[in-house]
Amino acid sequence: MLQAQFTPAFEAGSLDAIVIPPTAWPAIQKTGKKFNIIAKSETTPSLQGTGLTVISEKELAAHPDLPTIYNTLRVKALRYAEANSGAYYAWAAKLGNTTVAIEEQTAPLSGNPVANFTAAGISQLQGTLNFLVSEKEAKAFSIQNWELQSGN
After folding, report:
1. Containing H/E element for 7?
2. What's the whole-model pTM score?
3. Has residue 35 been placed in a domain?
4. Residue 2 lies in a domain
C-alpha cells in the first residue's frame, strides 16, 4: 500500500496502525494531528529496511553490461553526495519539501552503503522474503544464490 493510500485509511480509522518510512514522517507531522509512535527503526532494528534494484532476465540478456554500468554510476553518485553532503541534503530537502535537518536525520547518506550487499542488507532482505513466503505472497528462494548472480 502506498503512502497516499495508507495515510487516509489510517486517519479514517480503517487501519489500526501503519509502518512508515522515516522520510514520510515529516509529511504526516504537517497534518498537525497527534499520533502514537509505537516503535522507531533506530531503536528497533527489526523494523529497518533496505532497498535494491532488480532487472528482468529479458532485459539483462539484452543489456548484459547494464548492472556494471548502473553500479558504477550509483557509487560515483554516492561518493559525490558524500563529498558534497551540504548541497546533497539541501537538494533532498527541497525535493522532499522538508528541511536539511530532517533529511539528515531520516535519510542519512550512511544508509546508502557503497557495497552492493551488506550483511545487514542481506538479513533485511531475508526477513522480507520470509514474511512474504509466510503470507503466501512469494515462493522461497535463496537470496545468497541471487547475490552470486549479481556478480558480487
Report:
1. helix 3-11
2. 0.69
3. yes
4. yes
